[in-house]
Amino acid sequence: MNERLFRQAMGKFATGVTVVATKVGGKVHGMTANAFMSVSLNPTLVVVSIAEKAQMLEYMKKSKQFSVNILSAEQKELSMIFAGQLKENREVSFDQLGGVPVLPGAIAQVVCEVTAAHVEGDHTLFIGKVKELQVNEHRGDPLIYYSGQYRSLAE
């Protein structure tokens, strides 16, 4: 399989943009992710996919809890910070929901407890049981990622 062609094909699937966050040793760690989806309504489960080479992998294994913050169109800079696209060090503040760090201003914040982790290829899939969530309808449109670029919803 041609890896470049595979990445190009997968880039044609428009996704929302999230920041996955956790806390280990009193320090918050986060990463931008679009490999996120709901799995089950009963029980309420979601999955996030973390690359084996990502620093976040060990934090997720240690903390066994995480938040998924669905970003608004106005939060592109936060996505870039947690994707390592902005090199200058920027301070990011977090709120807490259910004792887990969440990003203020996110369209939705989903707090989970890890119930399973499955290594598949070069990623680990973390299944999270939803413990808390908050939806902020008034935050506007979601941040979209398509074909390697940030996008916005069109009316």
TrEMBL record:
<dbReference type="GO" id="GO:0010181">
    <property type="term" value="F:FMN binding"/>
</dbReference>
<dbReference type="Pfam" id="PF01613">
    <property type="entry name" value="Flavin_Reduct"/>
</dbReference>
<dbReference type="GO" id="GO:0006208">
    <property type="term" value="P:pyrimidine nucleobase catabolic process"/>
</dbReference>
<dbReference type="GO" id="GO:0042602">
    <property type="term" value="F:riboflavin reductase (NADPH) activity"/>
</dbReference>
<dbReference type="InterPro" id="IPR002563">
    <property type="entry name" value="Flavin_Rdtase-like_dom"/>
</dbReference>
<dbReference type="InterPro" id="IPR050268">
    <property type="entry name" value="NADH-dep_flavin_reductase"/>
</dbReference>
<keyword id="KW-0560">Oxidoreductase</keyword>
<dbReference type="InterPro" id="IPR012349">
    <property type="entry name" value="Split_barrel_FMN-bd"/>
</dbReference>
<feature type="domain" description="Flavin reductase like">
    <location>
        <begin position="10"/>
        <end position="152"/>
    </location>
</feature>
<protein>
    <submittedName>
        <fullName>Flavin reductase</fullName>
    </submittedName>
</protein>
